[in-house]
From TrEMBL:
Key words, A-Z: Amino-acid biosynthesis, Cytoplasm, NADP, Oxidoreductase, Proline biosynthesis
Example of a GO MF term: pyrroline-5-carboxylate reductase activity
Organism this protein belongs to: Microcystis aeruginosa (strain NIES-843 / IAM M-2473)
PROSITE patterns: P5CR
Residues given in the record as NADPH binding sites: 57
GO BP terms: L-proline biosynthetic process
Protein name, per record: Pyrroline-5-carboxylate reductase
Upper taxonomic lineage: Bacteria, Bacillati, Cyanobacteriota, Cyanophyceae, Oscillatoriophycideae
Function, in words: Catalyzes the reduction of 1-pyrroline-5-carboxylate (PCA) to L-proline.
Enzyme Commission number, as recorded: 1.5.1.2
Catalysed reaction equations from the record: L-proline + NADP(+) = (S)-1-pyrroline-5-carboxylate + NADPH + 2 H(+); L-proline + NAD(+) = (S)-1-pyrroline-5-carboxylate + NADH + 2 H(+)
Subcellular location: Cytoplasm
Pathway in which this enzyme or protein is active: Amino-acid biosynthesis; L-proline biosynthesis; L-proline from L-glutamate 5-semialdehyde: step 1/1
Primary location class: cytoplasm
Amino acid sequence: MSIRLGIIGGGVMAEAILSRLLKKNIYSPETVLVSEPQSQRRNFWVNTYGVQVSEDNREAARATEVLILAIKPQILEQVVNSLLGIPEKPLIISILAGVTLNRLEMGFPDRPVIRTMPNTPATVGQGVTAIAPGRHAEPEHLAVARDIFAAVGAVVEVPEALMDAVTGLSGSGPAFVALMVEALSDGGVAAGLPRAIASQLALETVLGTATLLKESAIHPGELKDRVTSPGGTTIAGVRQLEKGSFRSTIIEAVVAAYHRSKDLGRSSEK
Ligand SMILES: NC(=O)C1=CN([C@@H]2O[C@H](COP(=O)(O)OP(=O)(O)OC[C@H]3O[C@@H](n4cnc5c(N)ncnc54)[C@H](OP(=O)(O)O)[C@@H]3O)[C@@H](O)[C@H]2O)C=CC1
Ligand SMILES: O=C(O)[C@@H]1CCC=N1
């Protein structure tokens, strides 16, 4: 059976995306090959998902349709070198933070390339992925990328110049939100709740608030106003958050992640 989809780097994000693609029958396991240096991880892929595996990246690059690059940006050059001269011409989809289309097209001359930034909620089909096509990507290539990432959540097409900002917000954002959930739970424990109840309340509060904002399309500030009763509990908490520069801290976190994405891109061009 020929390999339709190859994935280079069988780590966290590869699993987040591929687990969903397999579950939704967009690819069947025998048409997918994951190349991954760790034998333990290769065994995991075979035993859990039934896909083909190899320690040789060139095997994944034999894919007839799509090759997803899911390695760390810092080893891109090593991976590009390992693929020099491969005859096949699959669509190359990069999920690497910071790495520019220009760098990817230098590594894969004349190939259709699409730069993307997914996020970990892809695992449960609630991800959001930004995509930016390279010079040789035709509408049909973009459609393939859209189909892949639509299987794991929402898809937005952005100009490549916005990709580092996307990375700072939605790429890194799940970690920021997870910290918020953890901190809410800690606050509940500090106020006397048992941990299990505090964690459940924290999680459901974040999930419910996000769902309410999405479904009602009200502005977050409007929701805050609805929760804050005059002289009540919520405004007392908001006041404390403002003393701790809550919003400014989150803004700076996204901007720091954006700058780091840019730095990773610059390093990969050297
Ligand atoms: N994690 C996230 O939330 C997101 C990550 N990304 C991007 O996804 C990419 C992967 O990140 P993530 O999944 O978190 O990282 P992981 O470290 O989990 O995955 C990378 C995988 O690549 C393997 N690998 C290392 N060297 C090679 C090689 N030479 N050839 C093939 N595979 C190799 C690693 O094996 P080993 O462990 O043995 O080194 C590892 O399994 C990054 O570029 C990141 O910027 C994008 C969006 C979100
Ligand atoms: O932390 C990182 O570099 C990757 C990119 C976006 C999320 N995780």
